[in-house]
Amino acid sequence: MTMQPAVQLRDLSPAAVRELDSSNIMHDAFEASQDEGLASRARESNRQKALVILGTAISQLPIWGFAMSYGVFQEYFSGNWTLQGSRDVTGIIGTTSNGVMYLSMPFLFALFTKHWAHWRQTAAFAGAVLAGLGFLLSSFSTHVWHLVATQGVIAALGCALMYSPMTLSLGEWFTTGNRALAYGVALSCKNISGSACPFLFRFLLEQYGLGTTMRIWTAVAAVSGAVSIFLVPAHPSSLTATETHRARRMPLHFLKHRTIYVYAIAIALQSSGYGISQTYLNTYAHDFTMLSQNSATLLLTLYNIPGILASSFFGYLADTNKRFVLSTTTVTAISAFGSALSALLFWGLTSKGNMALLAVFSITFGFFAGGYSATWGGIITDFEREAANGNEAIDSGLMYGLLNGARGVGYVSGGLASVSLLKAGTGMALSSNGHFGLESAYGPLIIFTGLSSAFGGWAVFWK
Question: Which keywords does this chain's UniProt record carry (predicted)?
Answer without folding.
Answer: Membrane, Transmembrane, Transmembrane helix
